[in-house]
Amino acid sequence: KTLALRAKIDLPFDAVKQAGSFIASQLGINMPSKEDVAAGSAKARAAAEKFRDRMRLFDDILHDQDRAEFVMVCIATGLSSAESGRLAQKLLDSDVSLRHIVVNQLLRSEAEAEAYLTRVTKDQRRTLSA
Q1: Are 105 and 72 in contact (CB under 8 A)?
Q2: Residue 75: in which H helix or E strand, if any?
Q3: Which of 52, 66, 68, 121 is the most buried (most CB within 10 A)?
Q4: What SS3 class is residue 63?
Q5: Cα 91 to the chain's mean position, in Å?
């Protein structure tokens, strides 16, 4: 029964394969052989295993506080602050060392804020007019 079932399953796939081969030959496309497909599969599997091994090494380094620490960089806005707070909590929950947070784009005076806003406005106008 198993062989009969297998034959019933293989029949439509063989028909599709034959139709695909016919169409490919009419279009001048060379269909890969089973060996080519197997070799490609082995190559993809090897690349995936290499990637997995590298990610494990990265994870080991990231969780070793003597070899790595995370430095968070954000800007002083409500959204950035909320996202940074969530990220910091996730890092701490995952035992990733987080010792420093850098806040960029702090405006210390009214003149500095006005100059910054003027630059942003000019950049927006330039972007929208392009």
Answers
A1: no
A2: strand 70-75
A3: 68
A4: coil
A5: 19
Asked if residue 106 lies in contact with residue 80, where contact means CB atoms within 8 angstroms, the answer is no
Alpha helices in the chain (DSSP H): 2-27, 34-62, 78-93, 110-129
Q: What single string gives the DSSP state of each residue in 12-35?
A: HHHHHHHHHHHHHHHHTPPPPPHH
Tens digit of pLDDT for each residue in 53-110?
A: 999 999 999 899 999 999 999 998 899 999 999 999 999 999 999 999 999 988 889 9
User: Can you read off the two tokens belonging to residue 53?
Assistant: 């091994």
Cβ contacts of residue 68 below 8 Å, gap of 6+? 61, 62, 97
